[in-house]
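User: Here's a chain of 206 residues. Predict its fold as tokens.
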Amino acid sequence: MADHSLLSPSKMKLILSCPFVLTIKDKEPQSEAASRGTMLHEAMERYVRDGEALDPDNFHLGLARKYIELLMADGNVEINCEERVYFGDLFGVMDEAAFGTSDIVAYNNAYNILYVCDYKFGRIPVKCENNIQLALYAYGAMRRYPFAEIISMSIIQPEQGESCHSNWVVSREELLAFLESSIAARRSEIMEWVMIGNDLCLTKQA
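Assistant: Prediction complete.
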């Protein structure tokens, strides 16, 4: 399985506005802010997966931990961190070209509630409602938890202070309808550009 997704959820808003970007290889080095975000993500992964203690003085990690603790308090919830999810069928392409990694995917099997959480450690506020990145994570997670009826999507943004936790809750049907309305007009065009993008990648590797 490839490590790079052409249809990256984090870039989907741009892809839907201009599918041609699928042929452009991202060569920009990771910024200092992105490196810090990666470090914080990795710390949260070790906390959830291994129970490794978090830095008690780190404000960002403390807020992110509160959300996880709420999920952990419910014995009916299965929690997965850094979960790779696939959604190729939405675009009519192979999963190798359409996947992403959700920070948290959790499932309450008593009430069929699927939780998807994304940490945003940058300073630019990100809207949770009608967020295509979260919706794709949730769709991919539904392939693992096909009986999910309620989808609760959250963004944790410590830099936003009192507004650090935003939530978007929809039914399974509402999520599917949102995705279809967002993707339908561009689906065939994206399928073509994915094929071209794959060909370019293979040519550069040869």
